[in-house]
């Protein structure tokens, strides 16, 4: 696994099957796409709004569209991808429910990662200082942040349940923004993890027994 990628992207890359068809929304400079293309033979496309990052992707030989993820994803037919990835961008999306539904329309599975707002340092800043938290994961002041949402891991699980999305796989991690090092957190992830990484799919129309999302709900959704 490449140590040049952010730790959350290393987790995502470990979940991708060889030869998959993949769409990376907000792909940045294309680190994940490039790694997967070189090491797992994926057929990947990216969408990125920043022109300079698009140029860097093209320089790596990647197929990347310059545009808004909401607008560009609508042009794809149903089921054309195996995976659609949205990494560290969900907190900046105006209509996350609609975007995730589009991800699961064009792809069999979606993968999202986001900063965990309920990390203990954020709680401590708000409790003791009475101010909006600022951290390495959320480095902006309230007045200049591109983030329009705060997402605790436990709330994302509830969101998936209420929206009819099925959680297929999840990992809570402790790492800093853009850090290549990190650790998987299994104990009290809603309190101790700085990021959540989730693989989701469409809800099954019928089924019995205890599904993966129910098992994770018990693990993550405790009131911490």
Explain what the structure shows.
It contains nine helices and eight strands. The protein has 224 residues and is an alpha/beta fold. The protein has an eight-stranded mixed beta sheet with strand order 3-2-1-4-5-8-6-7, with helices on both faces. Strand 4 (81-87), helix 5 and strand 5 (107-115) form a beta-alpha-beta unit.
Features:
single chain; about 220 residues; alpha/beta; Rossmann fold; eight-stranded mixed beta sheet; about 20% strand; disordered C terminus
Strands, helices and their partners?
Layout: H1 7-15, E1 21-25, H2 31-39, E2 43-48, H3 51-59, E3 64-66, H4 69-73, E4 81-87, H5 96-106, E5 107-115, H6 120-129, H7 153-163, E6 165-174, E7 183-184, H8 189-192, E8 195-202, H9 212-220
Parallel strand pairs: 1-2, 1-4, 2-3, 4-5
Antiparallel strand pairs: 5-8, 6-7, 6-8
